[in-house]
Amino acid sequence: DVQLQASGGGLVQAGGSLRLSCAASGFTFDDYAIGWFRQAPGKERVLVSCIGFSDGHTYYANSVKGRFTISSDNAKNTVNLHMNILKPEDTAVYYCTAGACSGSPSDYWGQGTLVTVSS
Questions:
Q1: Helix and strand tally (H, E) in the chain?
Q2: Dihedral pair phi/psi, residue 89, rounded to 5°
Q3: SS3 for 17?
Q4: If 0-12 CB within 10 Å is exposed, 13-18 middle and 19+ buried, where does residue 30 land?
Q5: How far apart are CA 15 and CA 78, in angstroms?
Q6: pLDDT bucket at 9, cuts 50 / 70 / 90
Q7: How far is CA 115 from CA 1, 3, 13, 83, 118, in A?
Q8: Within a 13 Å sphere around the CA of 14, how many CA atoms are in the beta-carbon half?
């Protein structure tokens, strides 16, 4: 079975930190770009960050630059999103994807993990 497992969400106060993890089973990340999308209530799903698993190139949305860091762990076949200085507007369901970071439904998608930032 091919699966992506996202974990690490939770409730945190503004200014706090969380680390999200995305783990793959049934395939390796080697040839993929791994992305984190988020969807806040009533809003569209947007790309937050992306990393090329082989070349390490990264992308960050302007709203998270300087606060979030994406990293890959090749040995564990996981990608982490370190989120610092969290703001209430970061509250959303976060999804990890494996593909081209395009949001395509043909990419692999994890089940989503909820991040709630209280003010």
A1: 0, 11
A2: -70, -5
A3: coil
A4: exposed
A5: 25
A6: very high
A7: 27, 21, 11, 10, 10
A8: 5
Q: Amino acid identity of 4?
A: L
Residue type, 68: F
| Residue among 37, 76, 30 at smallest CA distance from 59 | 37
DSSP assignment letter at 105 = T
Cα(105)–Cα(2) distance, integer angstroms: 15
Question: Can you tell me which residue has the tokens 């930032």?
Answer: 117
Over residues 42-84, the pLDDT tens digits come to 999 999 999 998 888 999 999 999 999 999 988 889 999 999 9
Cα separation, 26 vs 91, whole angstroms: 30
Q: What is the pLDDT of residue 29?
A: 86
pLDDT of 58: 97
